[in-house]
Amino acid sequence: MSEKLARVFGTKAPLVGPKAERLHPQSEEKPATTRKRDSFLAAMPKRSLERPPTSAGPPTISAPLAVPPPAKWEPPPFFKGLSGAVKHGSLMTCGVTANAVIYLSTHDKGGKNVAVVGFGSDPVKADKAKEKHRQRVVETLGKAEWSRKIFVLTSAGYLLQFSCDGAFNRLPEQSIRLSRHSVAFASDVIPGRHWVIQITTVYDGLSAITPGELSATPAPPAQQRPGSKSTYIKPIKQFLLIMDNGEDLDTWLTA
Hints:
Layout: H1 2-9, H2 18-23, H3 32-43, H4 78-83, E1 85-94, H5 98-106, H6 114-117, H7 123-142, E2 146-154, E3 158-163, E4 174-177, E5 183-187, E6 196-202, H8 211-216, E7 236-242, H9 246-253
Antiparallel strand pairs: 1-2, 2-3, 3-4, 5-6, 6-7
């Protein structure tokens, strides 16, 4: 009937039945997960392709933080130095500074370093000059005051000299910092003293050098002074440890 009406009025009747389903299949419904994803993407704001405005000036670079200089070492009192000692003992000392003793032993009256240049090429004259020089050193050091002091070698690498008498919190009379620039060796710098350890170190600003030690240290040559082309030699600080026997000498050298 519908087909007849369509021919009369000139319209096409809609297809029904299996034939219509083959020609016009129904659209498949999207799964729930796909719908959620599409709605999530639609809700997201679109990213702008424009660059954010920048300041007109050049970028500023923050300056690095200044590193504070290392704190100057403060000598510990007697009880604190003794509590952290690697080695300690009572040793004989000379009232003259170690630098002065070494300078006296290695230089003649004219200031010539006889330990380096010797006493001349003539063996007979050299022996006489050497003995005369030795007697001068013995007489000079014999007039000095000799006494015992307590020496403390700390785990931090400092050698401290304390008086034998005094309060438990007394400060060291002298100190020397041992470092890679320090050397310690057995020395015959004092005539008649057979067990002497000489410690020599370059002044590094952490251990104080007394005016007496500076005056006893020979001035560097002109070509090695500040302002010259050569490197300036820093002042040298020295210690003399006078032992009572050879066993003490070995234990202090290996401490």
